[in-house]
Structure formats: C-alpha cells, structure tokens
Write the structure tokens for this entry.
Amino acid sequence: MRSNPIKEQMNEIPLPAELHERSVAGIRRAATASRSGGAFKRKAVAIAAALALFLLGAALVDHSKVWAAIQKALQFVPGIGIVKEGDISTERYVMKQPLTIQIGEGTVQLTGFMSDEEMTYITMAGEDVSRFKTITLVNELGDRYTLNSSSASWGGRQWTSGFWHKGKLDLSGAVKLVLPLNPPMEVPIQLTKAESYSDYAELGETVTASGVSITAITDRVGDKIRVSLVSRHPDDYRIDDYGIHGVYMHDEKLELRDEAGKLLTIEKIPAISSPANAFYFADSGKPGESRYTMTLPEISVTYNDETTIEVPVATNGRLNQPFELAGFPVTITKTELVGEQSLRLYLDMHYDEKAVTSLYDLTIGERSHMAKLDERTGAIQYLEFDIEPGSERIRLKLVSPGVIIRGPWQFQLQPS
C-alpha cells in the first residue's frame, strides 16, 4: 500500500528560515546596544528579551499556519466527480468502483457514493427499470436509513437520479443497499475511506490553460478505463461540459487517441446534472503500458451574473441597444411581433471564434421562452416569448450567460 503524502509532510515541517534569521538578527542588534551600560543596558536587555519572545512567537504562529495548511487535504469522490477539501482527520467513505445490478431485462448502475459527517449522496442510472423515488441503506448493526430522490432526469428507457441524506450516517462497516422492488432486493456495497492528497497534481495529470486548471484522474473499471475530469477556476462561473458532449454544432469536442494516433471511441456516463466530466474507453494495450493523448479544445461554462433591460415592442428596424452580461457585450438589433402575443428579441452576441472566450448563450429569468441558434456557431440569434397584447415596452431579466473558454488542454495519459 502506498504511503500517505500528507502524513509524510506533517512529520517534516521545518522552522521557517526567514523568521529564524530575523530572530537572530534582532537579538544581536539588541545585545550590541546593551554594551553601552547603565539604565540603557537594562532597558536594552529587556527589549532584547521581549524581541526574542515576539519573534519566537511569530515563528510559532507561522509554524502553526504551515501545520494547519498541510493538514488540509483533497479527497476525490469517484463516480460523482468532485474533489472535497477539508481537514485530514475527516472520515469520508466512497465507492471506488461503479456497480451494475441486473433487474429482469433491465439494469441499474450505482455510479457514485459518498458519505461523510455532513451528508450521504448516491447517484444512480437505470435502463428498462422503473425509476426509484426512495432507497434504503442498512449498516452492519441493522440500522436502516431511507434516502429520498433529491434530483432526477428521465426520458425514454433511461433515467438518472440522486439520493441525498443530510447529516452523518453510520456506514463504516458492511453496508447493504435495499432497492424498492417486489420483493425488495438487497445489494452489498463496498465502501472504503477516501484517500487524501496534498494537491491536484497527485490526483492526476494537471494542465492549465486560459486560467482554468483541469486534472484528469484515471482508474480501471473491469476491462475499461474511466477518466474523470475535475478543475480549479474562478468562483464566478461553473463548468457545464468538458467537451464530452460539446456545444451545439461545434466540432471542437474532446478527443482521445492512442500511441499510433488512432481516434478512440469514448463511452459517455449517465449523469444527473452538469458538468459532463467523465467517460470510459477500452484499453487497447497491456495494463500499465499503454499511453493515450487526450485533447480538450474548449469547455463551456455558465457565469453567475444577470442584468435587467427594457425594450420597445415591434421596432422592426435597427434598434442597436447595447448591454453587458458577465463583462461580455451584447447588442439588441431589433424586436419583432409574431402575431399579437409573441415577441422576438434579435441579439448580436459578438461571437468571436478566435477569442479565448466567447459568449454564446443566455436565458430569460422567470419567463418561458425559446431560442433560435446559429447553425454554425451555436450562438443565440433571437429569443421568442409571449407578451400581453397591446404592450408597448417589455422589461426582461437576462441571466446565466453561457461562455466558451478555449484551450487547448492536452494530457498524456498512462492508466495504471
């Protein structure tokens, strides 16, 4: 079993050199002054002692900060695709490998599992099986915990769902998942303590471009390799997609090639919500020897920003009304009545295919609407929504600006 890098660093914390040098220099200066004798000598000795204590205290304070910083650890949650940062002593249990359960002609895949002092969260995907609204966990003492579906999406034969419980559950021993079938089905779950890491580079290869650091984490699931992508970026936006699905009509999607340059097929993993950040691919060589090149040309993000505008109805001409969203310029070129109760708002998003960042999307808050997209760039051409007949001006809140951030981010993967 590999050593814990956090513990190794905790055992080898040096005294900060610059503080040590300042302590010695300060004491020497005070000692030199004390040789002039008399009352000044006594005063200088007192100053020297106080200075020594002050600087020693400063060194200890700085030392404590270093100690506290090193005790902060990163823990990756497989399947859910998040990195938790916290105290190294925090116990967090995860399911390292996904679990597929055969139910009649259908399947349910347990894709992620995380349990710590604050919450328990489970992600699940089903095909040709009725969607579950609740599930039950049973620990080795026989205690039973019911988790409700907190989020879900479904369509056709498939569904995904997340199950959430607030607070700590005792799941440290043998755990069983009980599915609400007739009769109920019990499934053993193997949970392990999450490993702790000191930085993202220990989790996997980390590449930074355009202000976004992305880490590629690889692990083996049967005869496949799972790649999970996590990132560090400014807090004013969230990542929606790492190029796995890609933006509408864009060819700039994630690519994976083997050593011969052959483009490989990736298998998308069902997810409840964005970001799409994980996929499988078949390992084409011997385990531990194959190398792959993964390229992310662009990612899509949504900023947490909004603005309010007011526009006239039915200009049918060059309106040229500008506004900004997340710092990106947008121009309303015209409005157009469609019938008596619908209005089209034509937008120039100033989309630039060569820029590092390009605004391509936004939505109207608290009002249902549809959007017409440019078939080449995916940028909005106009928004259409219902209005009250006879309206002369419309006030709109525009929210959730969607932006393309271009890299590329290129990784050399060698799954173990």
